[in-house]
Amino acid sequence: MPVSEPLLKAVGVRKNYGHTEVLKGIDLEVRRGQVVCLLGPSGAGKSTFLRCLNHLETIDGGQVWVDGEPIGFKLRGGKLYELREKDVARQRRDIGMVFQRFNLFGHRTALENVVEGPVRVLGADPEKARKEALDLLDRVGLADRAGAYPGQLSGGQQQRVAIARSLAMKPKLMLFDEPTSALDPELVGEVLAVMGTLAREGMTMVVVTHEMAFAAEAADEVVFLADGAVVETGPPERVLKSPDHERTRQFLARVLS
Question: Sheet containing 20-30: which strands, arranged edge to edge?
Fold first, then answer.
């Protein structure tokens, strides 16, 4: 895929749950090295949209491409066919995802959690994977906690292990689904600091967040969603300080008050 083309492209993404239309035709383009923050009220469809980007949710309309490859589907004879789960899993290797809950293996140490994916999924040499995992834990400030189990770590530390685990797969794209929402307030900063470092290092990221300060500082573009649709998009200095739409202004007045 030419470097000038977006790494992530979503066109007309729709999602229904029964008779309820949750996503109403969302378009999004993210260039390599760009950080895009998805903002909006609860129930806007932000997390659902994020899960559609790596086919954790099957879309009911539209299409998603990552690095030129259609995600979750293949084109044959002019029609789209859903891929088998093992083929979708292969695509997900290139798309790291960090959830609200940490989802670490409780019976494995921090180091073992990070090593698991490269060895079992990518077939990496165990010793090389271990060295790279230690480097990643150092990168997220947890080199001294490599032998600790999740139950011995704070929520912020567990989330940083989860970030290291995703990075171990060497993804092209990182998705963050409100990664600080399950944390105590005093632990939020340590996770945002790691994400800020990733942004400065050029990791392509799509982040669902309510952390307005992070969006203002780290995002190249902010997308405001409400009722399953994109209401407003633009650079954070404009959208967060002088939004065009009344719906955006109402939201910001509540969260920034």
Answer: 20-30, 8-17, 61-66, 69-70
Minimal CA–CA distance to 82: which of 97, 60, 103?
A: 60
Cα–Cα distance for residue pair 205/223, rounded to 1 Å? 13
pLDDT of 78 reads 80
Per-residue model confidence as pLDDT tens digits over 56-70? 999 999 999 999 999
The stretches of the chain forming alpha helices (DSSP H) are 46-53, 85-92, 110-120, 126-139, 155-167, 185-200, 212-218, 236-239, 246-255
CA distances from residue 18 to 43, 46, 64, 80, 81 in whole angstroms, order as listed: 16, 18, 22, 22, 21
Residue 166: name the closest of 126, 200, 121 by CA: 121
Query: Which run of H or E residues covers position 40?
Result: none
If we measure between CA atoms, which residue out of 23, 4, 5, 1 comes closest to residue 14?
Answer: 23
The Cα–Cα gap between 179 and 182 comes to: 7
DSSP percent split of the chain into helix, strand, coil, nearest 5: 40, 25, 35
Dihedral through CA 53, CA 57, CA 60, CA 61, nearest 10?
0
Angle between helices 155-167 and 126-139 (to 10 degrees): 130
65-69, 77-81, 156-160, 195-199: which has the minimum mean pLDDT? Answer: 77-81
**Bridge partners (DSSP) listed for residue 108:** none
Do the beta carbons of residue 181 and residue 144 sit within 8 Å? Answer: no
